[in-house]
Amino acid sequence: MSETNAAPQDDAPKNDAPETSAEETAEVQATPEFEPIPEHLRDEALDGHQIKKLAEERIAEMQAELEAANDKALRLAAELENTRRRAERERGEAARYGISGFARDLLSVADNMAKAIELAPEDPSSMTKEGLEALVNGMRMTERELIAVFERNGVTRIAPKGERFDPNLHQAIAQVPGGGLPKDHVADVAAPGFVIGDRVLRAAMVTVSTGAEAQPQEG
To answer: What is the pTM of this model?
Structure first.
């Protein structure tokens, strides 16, 4: 009769719980255990009256901050409005009185012109040679004073005779034979020009050389 080998039986109790890895075990062991909140602190945290009081205090602080910010904004707005009005007033005054200094300087020129007219006789034919010379000298002095007033106020006179024609500063009214001047040079100035800074107030009225000599007229 053959013997049958029976499977060995494990008498140890079986554990149906899933196996836990070493990493999971270490993680569980590393997790800190939080202590429960003490009873007196838990009661204090849940005190509704204290929460309401703190909320009211914070609301009061925020309202005070808001009022301060609004007050500051109103002051800034008022200051900006005052600045705008002041700037408008200054612009208006500059437009009305901007030439006050220039006009004040011209008063002396006007006075000298009036004196020269008073000294001139009503009948020019009765004027002596000395009187005529005095009148002319007075007019020349008045012109020099006028030019000085212009220069003090930034106005420069342009008298470009002999200079190269510049269309930015000169206005040609005619072309004339060279007369010894190169082509496109100012032969004569009919009326001087004036500039203030880089701005042309009036271009100089000039005649421009053609560079060619005048042809002799046949008799």
So the answer is: 0.53
Mapped onto helix, strand or coil, the DSSP state of residue 78 is helix
Question: Tokens 């149906």 identify what position?
Answer: 16
Q: Can you tell me the distance from the alpha carbon of 131 to that of 137, in angstroms, rounded to the nearest whole number?
A: 10
Q: Which residue has the tokens 């909320």?
A: 55
Whole-Å CA distances, 154 to 141, 192, 199? 20, 16, 11
- Rama region for 151: left / alpha / beta (φ>0; ψ in -120 to 50; rest): alpha
Regarding whether 124 and 50 lie in a shared domain, the answer is yes
- Token pair of 138 as six digits: 């007075």
> Could you list the residue range(s) of the whole structural domain that residue 63 is in?
44-153
| Separation CA 157–CA 149 (nearest Å) | 11
* Cβ contact 106:149 at 8 Å: yes
Task: Tell me, yes or no, whether 198 and 140 share the same domain.
Answer: no
Residues 147 and 56 in one domain: yes
CA 158, CA 85: separation in Å to the nearest integer? 41
Q: Helix (H, G, I), strand (E, B), or coil: what is residue 145?
A: helix
Q: Is residue 135 located within the same domain as residue 184?
A: no
| CA distance readout (Å), 27 to 18, 20, 55, 217 | 16, 11, 41, 124
pLDDT averaged per 10 residues, the chain (length 219): 47 51 52 52 60 85 92 93 92 81 89 83 80 85 91 91 95 89 93 93 95 61
**How far apart are alpha carbons 45 and 81 in whole angstroms?**
51
Looking at the structure of the chain, the number of domains it has is 2
Number of Cβ within 10 Å of residue 181's Cβ equals 20
